[in-house]
Amino acid sequence: MTRTSLSRAFVPGIAVLTVLALSACGASNEDGGSDNSGDGGSSSGPESAGLTGVLKGAGATSQEKAQEAWAIGIQGANDGFEVQYQPVGSTDGRASFVEGAAAFAGTDSALNDDDGQLTAAKKTCGGTEPIQVPAYVSPIAVAFNLPGIDSVQASADTIAKIFDGKIKKWSDIPDEQADGVTLPDTDITPVHRSDDSGTTKNFTDYLGKAAPESWPYEAEDAFPVKGEAADGTSGVIQQISTIEGAIGYADNSQAEGLGKVSVQVGESFVAPSPEGAAKVLEASPPAEGVSDVDMAVALDRTTTEEGAYPVVLLSYLVACQKYDDADTAKNVKGYLSYIVSDAGQEQAAKEAGSAPLGEATAKKAQEIVAKIGS
């Protein structure tokens, strides 16, 4: 099997999330994290033990907190094992995997052949179908900065008009969507991702499907409207926090301290929550034409199920079924097995605020990851 050497450098200038085994002694592990130490948790299995060396991954910035939590959990059970995850965004993470710079990728936009990456990944994986399993489901918060205001209600149509520059002041939001507050005559500054991002693709997919008359753009990794932009999830959060009147979109786990929009679902307005995100996943069918090791899902953005929150991303892990190097295969299998285990899912839910995979989804993901070998 031909695979580009994993020894090549990661993207220059991008910080690598490295959580040393010593981090297991930190606060995250002390506050209940010890349940996932030892053998990686009773439900993570023996394949998550006996790991050594450095494992490189790259991808979604939205996975950063979860990846840190998973690294702490797995490294606490494996002395001499180090996970390096580079949060470069979903698009660049998939590219790093295809090029062989990363042994696995995290992505908020399912690997497909819209850009030829699925075919390229099959070549990287020696002609076999790449594995794609969900890591977690998480709400995308539509977050804003208005001093003294924590919540605003808005329909998909209103959100689309805001991000397309059609609604320019907070006071222009319809009164019935103001959630009982008087909105100021403050300019709205929409903030979007400057880098190609799976979060952007999920957000624009929601707008296009839930508000097709007000959002004429395709779902893409690149945001289609010019305006205030920032790199990565952390950059968007920083920009929103800095600019009064700003509004943007980001993984809910990283939007604490900001106001959040409750989006209209049927006749109700629903705030972002892991439980609401999980309801959308349960109501969504598999994507068309996927292989038996690909769990990509066509998320239902127009659900009217009570309590569902449709502005969600389903974050995936991408890996090969086979690796030339036996140690790499063991490490990828061990780490991904931990992530999709009960212990790993509980760790991410506690530390990153994601919704754990449902029992049937987790079981299928575990069966697929078990196929990884050399």
- Biggest sheet: strands, sense, closure? 12 strands, mixed
| Count of separate structural domains | 2
Number of strands: 12
Class inferred from helices and paired strands: alpha/beta
Low-confidence stretches: 1-14, 19-43
Helix fraction by DSSP (H/I, runs of at least 4): 25-40%
**Outline:** elongated
Question: What's the pLDDT, averaged over the residues?
Answer: 87
User: Could you give me the name of the CATH homologous superfamily of the largest domain?
Assistant: Periplasmic binding protein-like II
CATH topology of the largest domain: D-Maltodextrin-Binding Protein, domain 2
InterPro entries: ABC_phos-bd_PstS (IPR005673), PBP_domain (IPR024370), Phosphate-bind_PstS (IPR050962)
Keywords: Phosphate transport, Signal, Transport
Pfam families: PBP_like_2
Signal peptide: 1-23
Textual characterization of the structure:
The protein is of the alpha/beta class and 374 residues long. It folds into two domains: 17-138 and 283-298 and 312-369, Periplasmic binding protein-like II (D-Maltodextrin-Binding Protein, domain 2, 3-Layer(aba) Sandwich); 140-280, Periplasmic binding protein-like II (D-Maltodextrin-Binding Protein, domain 2), CATH 3.40.190.10. Helix content is 30%, strand content 19%. The chain is built from eleven helices and twelve strands. Strands 1, 2, 3, 4, 5, 6, 7, 8, 9, 10, 11 and 12 form a twelve-stranded mixed sheet that branches. Helix 3 packs parallel to helix 4 and helix 5 packs across helix 6 (198-210). The longest helix is centred in the C-terminal third of the chain and has 14 residues, at 326-339. The chain starts with 16 loop residues before the first strand and ends in a 5-residue tail after the last helix. Residues 1-14 and 19-43 have low confidence and may be disordered. It holds the Pfam family PBP_like_2. It comes from Nocardioides plantarum. Belongs to the PstS family.
